[in-house]
Amino acid sequence: MERFTISLDDKLAHEFDHWIADRGYANRSEAVRDLLRAEMERTRQNKDESVHCVACLSYIFNHHQRELTERITELQHDHHDLAVSTMHAHLDHDHCLETVILRGPTLAVRRFADAVCAERGVHHGKLNLISVELHHSHKHGRGAHHAAHVHPKPAS
Q1: Sheet harboring 122-138: ordered strands across?
Q2: Which positions bind Ni(2+) (predicted)?
Q3: Which CATH entry fits the domain spanning 10-46: 1.25.40, 1.20.1070, 1.10.1220, 1.20.120?
Q4: Is 88 annotated as a binding residue?
Q5: How many CB atoms lie within 10 A of CB 131?
């Protein structure tokens, strides 16, 4: 592990310590590491360097909107290679919250999220995307029922 030292003026250091305490970090190092990871991820995505990702798409929709539920379900089935899981929660008599866990090529995940959020009756759509690196295909165990597969690992 490498160490480095930074200098902060008193006001910024004080604000940073309050920020750390509010979020429950054990120390400054953990907070700085998370800030650096977040900024490097933002840069990677802005430069289109993120080839593969895992993501969480959340949105609210009015389930009374004509055929909206069917259209969203059809989009998920059409992209079954991306949609890993969906959680559905009823908020009130009219609105539902859905969260879809996605995995795949970043461009395809973004296009899927855009398509869902563009549906009439969908509100407050938000995509949280994390770049991953794909690790080589391998098998666990022996026999035909142990298929080769790839593990996505968060980019560091």
Answers
A1: 83-90, 95-105, 52-62, 122-138, 149-154
A2: 77, 88, 90, 96
A3: 1.10.1220
A4: yes
A5: 20
Q: What is the pLDDT of residue 137?
A: 65
Are the C-beta atoms of residues 59 and 97 closer than 8 Å to each other? yes
Name the residue among 129, 126, 96 with its Cα closest to residue 114. Answer: 126
Could you report the per-residue pLDDT of 15-37, keeping only the tens digit for each?
999 999 999 999 999 999 888 88
Distance from C-alpha of 106 to C-alpha of 126, rounded to nearest angstrom? 15
Is pTM beyond 0.90? Reply is no
Domain ranges of the chain: 10-46, 52-154
Q: State the amino acid at position 46 in one-letter form.
A: N
What number of CA atoms fall less than 13 Å from residue 5's CA on the CB side? 1
Three-class SS string for 57-114? Answer: EEEEEECCCCCHHHHHHHHHHHCCCCEEEEEEEECCCCEEEEEEEEEEEHHHHHHHHH
Question: What CATH number is given for 52-154 in this structure?
Answer: 3.30.70.1150
Find out whether 96 is annotated in a ligand binding site: yes
Residues 63 and 136: beta-carbon distance below 8 Å: no
90 carries a ligand binding annotation: yes
